[in-house]
Task: structure prediction
Amino acid sequence: KNEVEQSPQNLTAQEGEFITINCSYSVGISALHWLQQHPGGGIVSLFMLSSGKKKHGRLIATINIQEKHSSLHITASHPRDSAVYICAVKSVIQGAQKLVFGQGTRLTINP
Amino acid sequence: NAGVMQNPRHLVRRRGQEARLRCSPMKGHSHVYWYRQLPEEGLKFMVYLQKENIIDESGMPKERFSAEFPKEGPSILRIQQVVRGDSAAYFCASSPPASGGALSYNEQFFGPGTRLTVL
Result:
């Protein structure tokens, strides 16, 4: 079992739908990243959080430290949101700074 | 403030050749991380460096791979005698020095990646 599990692995939705991507992890963490990777492959950091909730535009990220779970929500989804979304954690056990990644969720938003 | 820069963006090598991948961190960042993304797989940590020091290389293959981050200039990931299995996207990230000791964490910012193809 991977230390970081994402669900679903693939998600297809219609433009305008509310999107939720989930991330569960099995280690103690000090921080969690949500990353976006577009076709062509560059990686953009969307959020870094260690507690509570963060919002940026149509994106919302939440984390529940006790349940070891985080969610990424996209409101009013748009075809340009189509990308792979990756959850990554900084483990307190595995050393000072390296990230451990989920397998990613491939999101496709159809017009 | 320019972001993390990597070059080349695409690199083609024949089996047995050497590949050198470069990463220039963001201004003010002294920590560099290399990650590899094999085709259809997730990102995996390779190595974490500070200026002139390798801090954690637990993700580096034991042979043919090496990394450095000299006092001056970019960080280099070097792959000797490349094989087809080395074909992947190699991402570099940088962060400022961690404050508050070893268990603290500063956000990492990613470069655009270098896509290595071994023929």
The radius of gyration of chain B is 14 Å. Chain B touches chain A at residues 31, 33, 35, 37, 41-45, 48, 55-56, 58-59, 89, 91, 95, 98, 102-105, 107-110, 112-113, 115 (CB under 8 Å).
